[in-house]
Specification:
heterodimer; A: about 650 residues; 3-stranded mixed β-sheet; two-stranded antiparallel ribbon; 29 helices; B: about 100 residues
Chain lengths: ~650, ~100
């Protein structure tokens, strides 16, 4: 199986332009924010939209194939042999570019309405634009160092945007947590790059992958693990996932763009991009697949215990990325990437839909204080409903095709347990998503704020239009692209990159794809039914407030404590680090480092006092000493001369 | 022509040098001390010239001129210091000049 990475070298000004346009937007918004005012939003929308159009225009270049190479390669800077920087647009990066700029455009446009009246309006759009640029750097880079630079920059943009409302302590804490955990991942990636450069003396993808078979199993496993630490931190995989739910402190469009559609899927991109490495290491594949499956399951279980609408969506994001990682981990690349593609649409839709609700209710995020919103906000209700149907994988909706591709892919590549985990997770997903929908939109309104009064101004068309546009691909794109198995447009698009179906080493699946789908759907219906019985029936809705409060109390401690991941990380890493800091501050620094300096000062003073005492200032004393010294010389030479 | 033995020169030089040393150590008047120093210089000069003559080497004579030059410069500086310390008090004693003590 060949994995063609470095494409047709040449001049592709379109790629450079689509890469740099968002950076220009960020620079302009940063420099002229106060002058631009609301124009900043329109400017960034236009630039990101233009970037999207350029990406569309680059389609032909990205899919061209010549001399065994695929895509378009634009060299930028050559530092020294083996250290060349350039842009690479092949089907994989083209797909990500579409999502980053396309969905990014819709979300930025939506933000014009969502962020209306915020004091730091232009700053928000500068950060958003900067994020788009950073993410494009990540996916367009043709080498590991450029990838790492993009990797770090998206983390930085994420930090800025999570902490956007920095007057809230919780937002600042969340931003810091996200940044620190992401840096853990960056360091892991850096070590992977060190290992690669030490062995192939090149940072280019092409050189690294061409030598994939020559690394030896131990080294290859080390490289894959180090890379996956980066992927796990960025993509919120267990056990580095704890920052993602906290990251919901950022404005909702940020959650939609960065923490649902694009940045958190960078890990999926990395695993897919480095597929040639993973394909030579069955152990690494097994590990990545298992972590993905575990994350999918844990995320879904944790999603059932949340009341904050954005945290529910955050855990569902974590769970869905678990699916993607599981897919690309076991080798079902088309499936994993397909789930990224559909997820970008439906999760952005769900986040923006929840943003409509949050915006209308004056920043209320607790679903227990919503209820009955389907009558007051029918548009938001329909958006959320279609989103929920898609994420649950109801047949016909996009999520169905991609999720089943992952679940069946796990089975096909010989991981029946992961397949089972995926099936169970699908059922839990249906439960918690419908639970959110029912609690928030059915029954009677339970909030404090009267939505009819001051807050629930109907969302303006600026916010509704992007959501409406998102609904279309979210519902239909799976059916349009992913039907027909190996003959689907999707499979054909990626066949040159990941090899045809014949090249995939399938170990044969015991049951057919249709059977899997039926089982999944049965569990989805089951999850829906439980959610319906618990939250949507008339008796359940009647005593909603009191019952929902009690239910929080009754929840198992392990769920309210989020499986003790935060506590464990605190215990294992944070506390020892704090203790080490205290030890250094109270003992090491004052006693050892300052102590050494103080001792030096003491002895220098002592020596100075000693030498100073010789300086009497009495000229005759000096003369006496001088004569004494001269006498000593004379006596010495007299004795020496006599001896000779 | 009568030749004075070299030992006589050395003896005279030693006596002159010793007188100079004693003068520097025991006297507290800087003028006398300067003169004692000159005495030591001249003892050294005498020996330089005597040895130059005895060994027929002119280097010693050249060195004597060098020493005279240095001695003149030293005397100029020394006198300048003495004059500046003498002026305010109209009195000078080297034991009182100890502003540079440690």
């Amino acid at each position: 199986m060949t994995h063609q990475v470095l494409g047709v070298t040449g001049a592709y000004p379109l790629i450079v332009a689509l890469w740099l346009l968002p950076l220009a937007g960020a620079a302009i918004c940063w420099a002229f924010g106060p002058q631009l005012r609301t124009l900043a939003g329109w400017l960034v929308s236009a630039l990101v939209g233009a970037s999207f159009v350029l990406a569309l225009l680059s389609w032909g270049a990205a899919t061209q194939s010549a001399g065994g190479a695929l895509g378009a390669h634009q060299p930028l800077v050559s530092w020294m042999p083996g250290f060349d920087f350039g842009l690479l647009l092949d089907p994989l990066s083209l797909l990500w570019t579409f999502i980053i700029t396309g969905v990014g455009f819709l979300i930025v446009f939506y933000s014009i309405g969502y962020m209306e009246g915020d004091v730091a309006f232009a700053r928000f759009f500068a950060y958003m634009s900067f994020f788009v640029f950073a993410m494009l750097t990540l996916v367009l880079s043709d080498n590991f160092v450029g990838l790492l630079v993009g990797w770090g920059l998206v983390g930085l943009a994420s930090y800025f945007l999570i902490g956007f409302w920095f007057e809230r302590r919780s937002a600042v804490a969340a931003a810091r947590k996200a940044f620190v955990i992401n840096v853990v991942g960056d360091v892991g990636m850096m070590f992977a790059i060190f290992l690669i450069v030490a062995n192939v003396h090149s940072i280019g993808f092409g050189d690294a992958f061409a030598a994939a078979g020559t690394y030896g199993p131990g080294l290859l496993l080390a490289i894959c693990l180090a890379l996956f630490i980066g992927a796990a931190a960025k993509s919120a995989q267990v056990p580095l996932h704890t920052w993602l739910p906290d990251a919901m402190e950022g404005p909702t469009p940020v959650s939609a763009l960065i923490h649902a559609a694009t940045m958190v899927t960078a890990g999926v991109y990395l695993v897919a991009r480095c597929a040639p490495l993973w394909q030579h290491s069955a152990g690494a594949q097994m590990l990545v697949g298992t972590i993905g499956g575990l994350t999918a399951l844990l995320g879904a279980i944790l999603g059932t215990a949340q009341w904050d609408i954005k945290r529910i969506l955050a855990y569902s994001t974590m769970s869905q990325i678990g699916y993607m990682i599981m897919g690309v981990g076991v080798g079902a690349y088309e499936g994993g990437i397909a789930h990224f593609f559909t997820h970008a649409f439906f999760k952005a839709q769900l986040f923006l839909g929840s943003g409509l609700v949050i915006h209308a209710l004056g920043s209320e995020q607790d679903v227990r204080k919503m209820g009955g919103l389907w009558r007051r906000m029918p548009f938001a209700f329909w958006v959320m409903l279609t989103g929920v149907l898609t994420i649950c994988g109801v047949p016909g909706f996009s999520g169905f095709f991609s999720k089943d591709a992952v679940i069946y892919g796990a089975l096909e590549h010989g991981h029946p347990w992961l397949c089972a985990v995926g099936v169970v997770t699908a059922g839990i997903t249906a439960y918690y998503m419908f639970r959110m929908l029912f609690v928030a939109f059915l029954g009677d309104y339970r909030g404090d704020a009267d939505p009819g009064e001051h807050h629930a101004h109907a969302p303006v068309w600026i916010m509704n239009a992007p959501v409406a546009v998102l609904v279309v691909p979210s519902v239909a794109i799976g059916g349009a692209l992913m039907t027909g198995g190996d003959d689907s447009p999707w499979a054909k698009f990626f066949a040159p990159l990941f090899g045809g179906p014949a090249a995939v080493a399938t170990s044969g699946a015991p049951i057919s794809e249709t059977t899997t789908s039926v089982i999944v759907f049965a569990l989805v219906v089951l999850g829906f039914a439980i959610a319906w019985l618990r939250y949507a029936t008339r008796p359940a809705q009647a005593d909603a407030v009191g019952r929902l409060q009690r239910e929080t109390v009754r929840m198992p401690a392990i769920l309210t404590n989020l499986f003790y991941f935060d506590a464990a990380i605190n215990l294992i890493f944070v506390r020892p680090a704090q203790l080490a800091g205290v030890a250094a501050g109270r003992v090491l620094d004052p006693r050892v480092f300052d102590g050494a300096v103080r001792d030096l000062v003491f002895w220098a003073r002592w020596l100075g006092a000693l030498v100073r005492s010789f300086q009497t200032g009495l000229v005759r004393t000096y003369a006496l000493i001088l004569v004494f010294g001269a006498a000593c010389f004379i006596v010495y030479y007299a004795i020496a001369g006599a001896a000779r | 022509m009568m030749t004075v033995p070299i030992g006589d020169y050395v003896a005279l030089g030693a006596v002159m040098f010793f007188l100079g040393v004693v003068g520097v150590i025991v006297r507290r008047n800087p003028l006398i001390m300067l003169m004692s120093i000159e005495l030591m210089f001249n003892a050294a000069n005498l020996l330089l010239i005597a040895f130059a003559r005895a060994w027929l080497e002119n280097v010693g004579q050249i060195f004597a001129f060098l020493v005279i030059t240095v001695a003149a410069a030293e005397a100029a500086i020394g006198l300048a210091i003495i004059v500046t310390t003498f002026r305010p008090e109209k009195y000078v004693d080297v034991d009182d000049i100890r502003t540079l003590h440690g």
